[in-house]
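Lab notes, practical 5.
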Amino acid sequence: MTTTYSTTTSGRAGFPLRTFFVPFAFVCFTLTLLTDIAYWRTSFMMWHNFSAWLLFAGLVFGGIGLLAGAIDMLRRSTRIWGPGWGAALGYIVMLAFGVLNSFVHAGDGWTAIVPMGILLSTITVILAIFTVLLAARGRSRVIWSVER
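Output from the prediction step:
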């Protein structure tokens, strides 16, 4: 009995649109955590502004990525590369925590960042890591599908 490993389960697969936008949200939310920590350590208002703008950029690109992911689920050629429902739900929860974090960061000065802003940024980054792991797990099943 021989086992053959194939890189796709169909002969043709399209390029998923969400891969252009989804990584921006992950990077922006991670950088928000780092700028929150920088503000906590220095009390320099510039870091507060950076955090607010990074949250905004992460939410905008996250929303676009969510829309692109929905389009990918509807396209037959990219449906096979879908992250799965678990990763999609994790991404939506991550964006919801990003929105909540943005509301907290809208406050003035120290109380907008310490301690709730840092806590919400940390939770958002942990959810981002969890979502990436879920998506990678689902994708590896498609890439290394076993044919017998």
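Observations recorded by the TA: The beta strands are 4-6, 145-147. The chain has one domain: 4-147.
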